[in-house]
């Protein structure tokens, strides 16, 4: 099946000579949640704006649902919902009218039943007659999402949707994203909250300095690049790692009775069995052993730092 969004050789160079996107190619499958991660200035918003037809590319091609975003702009744009970073709403308009107006902009016939479903899904129905100026920042962000969904798009772009939102509301929005996916909506999410991508994304794309560093399934990425650590708690504190264990590259933990062993899960031999045997041979008594996987944040930071060094 053809991807719902196809980006090929996309370049964006500004008049100043700054290259915001450098030969970016990316396919996004129907019904998936793709998290686009990158530091400030990496090109995330430029990429989204170009796919949505807001920014004109210097080179390359973008299609949405098979429609070229330049040659067939209207057909492509009708398939897209966009939730921007900035909250830019008419402050004195009522919530329902704000969302209804957005639907009309896309030439869709009036459908108050659909708008009611959207507002209820976002816990906004009881605010439908409230003026935007009366809403909290989190509720205003929900209105932005409602506007983006008003014309029933197949693809939804969320550009930092939970910036400045409290933890409880953020989790509510995650649940909304999951429901939208279940209904077949393709979602592209940019975020600074790595736990957001870790919680809801199917695939991760990392962008830095206008280049896509990788696009990979989240679970596979964490298996491939994630390190695992074994935290070994001892019965008694030690001053330093015994000489007999030095070849294992052990580190002492924050407490004097803890050793930390880092290993690659992809290696055929992790060395764990040998290490535990040698710890006992060195006369150290174990109290507990725990393991933990690298988080997506640690993987992301490592990738970006590697790119910067390169």
TrEMBL record:
What region holds the ABC transporter domain? 5-234
Q: One Pfam annotation, family name?
A: ABC_tran
GO MF terms listed in the record are: ATP binding; ATP hydrolysis activity
Note whether Transmembrane helix occurs among the keywords: no
Determine if Amino-acid biosynthesis is one of this entry's keywords. no
Keyword vocabulary terms for this entry: ATP-binding, Nucleotide-binding, Transport
User: Which CDD domains does UniProt cross-reference here?
Assistant: ABC_DR_subfamily_A
Q: Which residues form the signal peptide?
A: none
The name of this protein is ABC-2 type transport system ATP-binding protein
Species of origin reads: Tranquillimonas alkanivorans
């Amino acid at each position: 099946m053809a991807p719902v969004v196809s980006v090929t050789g996309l370049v964006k160079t500004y008049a100043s000579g700054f290259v915001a996107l450098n030969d970016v190619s990316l396919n996004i499958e129907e019904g998936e949640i793709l998290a686009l991660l990158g530091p400030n200035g990496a090109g995330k918003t430029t990429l989204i704006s170009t796919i949505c037809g807001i920014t004109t590319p210097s080179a390359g091609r973008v299609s949405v649902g098979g429609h070229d975003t330049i040659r067939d702009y209207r057909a492509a744009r009708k398939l897209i919902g966009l939730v921007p970073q900035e909250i830019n709403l008419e402050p004195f308009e009522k919530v329902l009218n704000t969302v209804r107006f957005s639907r009309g902009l896309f030439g869709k016939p009036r459908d108050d039943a659909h708008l009611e479903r959207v507002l209820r899904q976002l816990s906004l129905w009881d605010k439908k007659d409230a003026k935007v100026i009366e809403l909290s920042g989190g509720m205003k962000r929900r209105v932005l999402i409602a506007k983006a969904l008003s014309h029933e798009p197949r693809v939804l772009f969320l550009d930092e949707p939970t910036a400045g939102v409290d933890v409880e509301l953020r989790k509510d929005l995650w649940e909304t994203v999951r429901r939208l996916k279940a209904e077949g909506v393709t979602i592209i999410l940019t975020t600074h909250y790595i736990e957001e991508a870790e919680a809801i994304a199917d695939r991760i794309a990392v962008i830095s300095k206008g280049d896509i560093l990788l696009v990979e399934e989240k679970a596979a990425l964490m298996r491939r690049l994630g390190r695992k650590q074994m935290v070994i708690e001892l019965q008694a504190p030690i001053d330093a790692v015994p000489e007999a264990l030095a070849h294992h590259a052990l580190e002492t933990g924050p407490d004097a009775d803890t050793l930390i062993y880092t290993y690659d899960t992809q290696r055929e031999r992790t060395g764990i069995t040998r290490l535990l045997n040698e710890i006992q041979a060195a006369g150290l008594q174990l109290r507990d052993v725990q393991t933990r996987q690298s988080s997506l944040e640690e993987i992301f930071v490592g990738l970006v730092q590697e790119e910067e060094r390169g």
